[in-house]
């Protein structure tokens, strides 16, 4: 029986960029190593694209947009191609899942069941949606006809992070391509492989050359060049708040391109004493913080538990922690894999040290794991006796670290939950419908979960308040980012 390790041994990663329908190396001929966080082994060399390559890719995207090879296809024609694109993604699902796991360390079971399936579903959904969106006629006087239509923005730059490389790419390219735009995608230098493979699959599905281009490289080189480019009409970014601010500044410094950002989070998960199902709350709280090794912007990293049930809650939580011990990402039974690279490992361990220094009480984990493998693993970690002034309660860790805070008054819990520059996700667990509604309204977050966490569907918008970004990914609202509204006023009679 062929194992995932057997398949991994046969992988020959192609790190060349994809511009104008062809695989190419950077014009500078510079490259960088792509290392797997599973065991530190070299997967291959990747093109280190810079401003010269950005100019070439943007020119290819602009030419494709202007000649209409994609933009002027009917919505029904674009739909057929995108649905085929999604079908081919699933056909190549095992290959894509393996690349995703080797590249960023997530368990293969989730690369298959979550990342591949969700990314394909996203592309398919936007393809199906585009010929079902109607334009408008304004209710003007009888002697005029005012048409309100959506048009593609033009050239869209998309910069996506390393934690969900394939899915975040799909969230951007799905609506952008469906609307008729041309796209230049820059994946993270930490995890470029699936994005590059997606470009080849898109071409096979019928997306014309030049319409979808992928440039691997570093943020301060290729990413900055895209944000500053005078011929990029729109930029969509998912990543840290710090880099998101820089991109918005660059957009303003250049051509005032619209900039859409989905940024960091420090999500609050509030469990009240009247929680209707404490076991479900515990399972969701623990499962959600350790899913994807805690490398999720919406991870519920701040757990507020009402004082009267805190001891019982933590007893149940600690019993579940061993289930999330880091394992071999290429083992189908593993549920928590490797941290993406040595830099992020150092960051996570630094926050654990800060928790100790600030006086939080370590209940579980706190150490590096599987050091003999040469990979980057951290034990599932829980700190108790945390207060909102501590570093681990204020800053986004992006690792498997849970901070537990207690409360006696839910209004005080909400006040603490909102005392953060972020506003991505939040949750409240209570059997009191009025309390649930009032708390949900009071929480300043783009998504508030009630008696569950991580509820998800492509039909539901994803994004945040405050410094968690602007605009929304997913749902029909994503088209607002990649289309212009045009009014055509016609005098009648």
TrEMBL record:
One Pfam assignment: Aldedh
GO molecular function, one term: aldehyde dehydrogenase [NAD(P)+] activity
SUPFAM superfamilies from the UniProt entry: ALDH-like (SSF53720)
Keywords: Oxidoreductase
Domain Aldehyde dehydrogenase: 25-487
Similarity-based family: Belongs to the aldehyde dehydrogenase family.
Name of protein: Aldehyde dehydrogenase family protein
UniProt source species: Duganella flavida
């Amino acid at each position: 029986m062929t194992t995932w390790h057997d398949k991994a041994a046969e992988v020959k990663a192609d790190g060349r960029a994809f511009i104008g329908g062809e695989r190419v190396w950077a014009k500078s001929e510079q490259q960088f190593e792509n290392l797997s966080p599973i065991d530190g082994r070299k997967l291959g060399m990747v093109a280190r694209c810079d401003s010269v390559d950005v100019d070439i890719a943007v020119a290819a995207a602009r030419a494709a947009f202007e000649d209409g090879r994609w933009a002027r296809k009917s919505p029904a024609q674009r739909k057929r191609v995108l649905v085929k694109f999604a079908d081919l993604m699933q056909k190549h699902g095992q290959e894509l899942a393996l690349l995703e796991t080797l590249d960023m360390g997530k368990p293969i079971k989730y690369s298959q069941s979550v990342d591949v399936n969700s990314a394909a579903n996203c592309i398919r959904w936007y393809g199906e949606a585009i010929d079902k969106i109607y334009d408008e006629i304004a209710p003007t006087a009888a002697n005029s006809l005012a048409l309100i239509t959506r048009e593609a923005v033009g050239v869209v730059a998309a910069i996506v992070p390393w934690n969900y490389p394939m899915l975040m790419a799909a969230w951007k390219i799905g609506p952008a391509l469906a609307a008729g735009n041309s796209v230049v995608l820059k994946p993270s230098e930490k995890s470029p492989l699936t994005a590059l493979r997606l470009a080849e699959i898109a071409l096979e599905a019928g997306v014309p050359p030049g319409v979808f281009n992928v440039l691997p490289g570093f943020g301060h080189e290729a990413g900055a060049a895209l944000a500053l480019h005078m011929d990029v009409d729109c930029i969509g970014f998912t990543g840290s708040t710090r880099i998101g601010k820089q991109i918005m500044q660059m957009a303003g410094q250049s051509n005032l391109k619209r900039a859409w950002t989905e940024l960091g989070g420090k999500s609050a998960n509030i469990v009240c004493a009247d929680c209707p199902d404490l076991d479900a709350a515990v399972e969701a709280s623990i499962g959600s913080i350790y899913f994807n090794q805690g490398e999720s912007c919406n991870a519920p990293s701040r757990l507020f538990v009402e004082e009267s049930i805190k001891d019982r809650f933590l007893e149940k939580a600690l019993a579940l922690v061993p289930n999330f011990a880091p394992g071999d990402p290429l083992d189908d039974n593993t549920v928590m894999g490797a941290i993406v690279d040595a830099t992020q490992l150092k960051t996570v361990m630094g926050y654990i040290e800060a928790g100790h220094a600030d006086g939080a009480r370590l209940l579980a984990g706190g150490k590096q794991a599987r050091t003999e493998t040469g990979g980057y693993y951290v034990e599932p970690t829980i700190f108790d006796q945390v207060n909102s002034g501590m570093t681990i309660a204020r800053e986004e860790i992006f690792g498997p670290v849970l901070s537990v805070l207690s409360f006696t008054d839910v209004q005080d819990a909400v006040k603490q939950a909102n005392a953060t520059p972020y506003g991505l996700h939040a949750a409240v667990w209570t059997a009191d419908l009025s309390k649930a509604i009032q708390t949900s309204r009071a929480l300043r977050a783009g998504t508030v979960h009630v008696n569950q966490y991580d509820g998800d569907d492509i039909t539901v918008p994803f994004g945040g308040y405050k410094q968690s970004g602007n605009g929304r990914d997913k749902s029909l609202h994503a088209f607002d980012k990649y289309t212009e509204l045009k009014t055509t006023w016609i005098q009648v009679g």
